[in-house]
Amino acid sequence: MKIPNKVLLLTTNHVGNNLICTPAIRLLKKHNPHATLDVVVMSTRGADTFCGNPDIHKIYATRRKNKIQKLVKEYPLVIGLHHDKAKEYLTAENKHAIVMRPYTNNKHRADDTLDFVRGILGCDLEEDDRRYVLCPTQHDFAIIKKC
User: Fold this and answer.
1) Residue 1 domain-assigned?
2) Is residue 90, in this structure, part of any structural domain at all?
């Protein structure tokens, strides 16, 4: 599939679920380096997972359905990286949206999400593609040091 230059990714409010999306987001960027990837996260805490991530251009932290619907209309492609949340916020009118199927029980969620994006791209995976992306700031390290 040809990926447009502007893509909106829908994730969740959970830090862990967002972290397991990072290999898939990196794979999308790796195969489309000029694409702008923006992310909708359902909480500010969940948004922190993506702060500083070089693959992501803009992070929207909101649960408001009307705001998300407005954002969805601004993008030629929307990818729902979490089945339940994406289905909750997208409608049948969103023909330009691709939503991940429900997770399978025989695979780790990170592998399932990565395979979903790999299927969209039609590419092969390398072992390096499975790495998580977490970009802590100096402020984050200072907080850890205090503990």
Assistant:
1) no
2) yes
